[in-house]
Amino acid sequence: QVQLVESGGGLVQAGGSLRLSCAASGRTFNIYSMGWFRQAPGKEREFVAAINWIGGTEDYGGSVKGRFTISRDNAKITVYLQMTSLKPEDTGDYYCTGRRGSMRSEWSAYDYWGQGTQVTVSS
Q1: What pLDDT, on the 0 to 100 scale, is given for residue 7?
Q2: 10 Å Cβ neighbour count for 19?
Q3: Structure confidence at residue 27 (pLDDT)
Q4: What is the SS3 assignment for 4?
Q5: Residue 91 exposed, middle or buried by CB count within 10 Å (0-12, 13-18, 19+)
Q6: End-to-end CA distance of the chain
Q7: Under a CB-based contact definition with an 8 Å cutoff, are residues 18 and 119 in contact?
Q8: Coil, helix or strand at residue 27
Q9: Tens of pLDDT, residues 65-117
Q10: Which of 2, 27, 82, 113 has its CA 20 to 30 Å from the CA of residue 13?
């Protein structure tokens, strides 16, 4: 099995920055890509970003493109989400995901999920 643990969430003012981390453990050799999704209260879950572990190809949701950056640390088996120019609409629970295949933007395509970390952006 694979365990994913997110950290780095918190409260930040609009315009500020925050970096989320997701550490993978267990049978990590199964992971070929990792991603981030978010869900705001009363809204549907939304794709944020994803990255292929080999090659580092990235993909972003339209609402975060140009503001968020996903990256990985192979040695630490950790993926990061650097969030800048944060807006109140970025508020939500952020979930880390892992997949036994190339990155996808659908939640259901992933095989492993973290417990989530909360991000609150105040106006």
Answers
A1: 97
A2: 14
A3: 92
A4: strand
A5: buried
A6: 40
A7: yes
A8: coil
A9: 999 999 999 899 999 999 999 999 999 999 999 999 999 999 999 999 999 99
A10: 113
